[in-house]
Batch of 2 targets.
Target 1
Amino acid sequence: MSLEERLKKLEAGTNRSLTARLADHLDAIESALSKGVKRELIVKALNDEGLAFTLRSFDTALYQIRKKHARTLIKVVKSDVEDTTALMPVIMKPSLSPNNQHRGASNSAKDEKKERKDKAAKYIG
């Protein structure tokens, strides 16, 4: 038996952690939970199949699996976003950084105030 065959056999076997074996059934578990099946009944079904979970160990393992899947999903989304950022429209002028916007706003307010004074001076003078 080759090494690859032996590793494949180990992947399918009971030598893996309970969490890893639970992850194999994640879609079915999530579907059952979303349809209102009680966690206690799911744990009983898992125990009947040879996966020895308590309710607490099931909750912990499910939390770990969801967390790992969320991190994987975030990585995928980030890579998709990085690929499409070149297609996004420019919202701010490139020359204005967030820090310079405030200065620019106050300068334009000062300019407007100066213009009003100049107009007032023309009317008075």
Target 2
Amino acid sequence: MKIISIFDTENSSLFAYQMIGAKQDLFSKAFNNWSDTKYLLKFFEENKGDLYKWYDENELMETAVLETIKEANSYRSKFLRASDKKYGIKLDSMFVNLHRGESEEVELMQKKSPGFSTPSWLRVYAIRIESNCYLVTGSMIKLKAKMQENKDGLNQLKNIKFVKEFLEKNRLKTKNDIIKYIADAN
């Protein structure tokens, strides 16, 4: 498994999982896809039935694509600003527990970051390594209420579980462990 550093500063650290053979890590892939008109048109065409709860049929595709691109750009900027102290953004404020009722003291906690529009269908999934330090495990455009209701959601749940098990098996439980793992892999 490959882990990529998106940023590692005094303020926050964001890492991302990169699948073997993949050209990009899952953080970069998400924001590239969410800014790609062709990708979004195909995605929304394949999921048109789920879009009706969000938009009127006449404005469906064009609005969904434009809104997604607009939100993705703002969302990515907010993530990247978390690397700089002057913006006052902490990664911990951008993530919530993936599973309700789970204690904040759980090691390698599974988290999600919903987009910032109200409502938003953009999601980034990650493992919290420690305070303001996260490892991105995937993302999705979530059009249904529950992740288990579609293939993308089930894949995200599998991914986050796989990465958490990998981290546990390899005793990667702190930011320093992750940094050492990345250095040893290079």
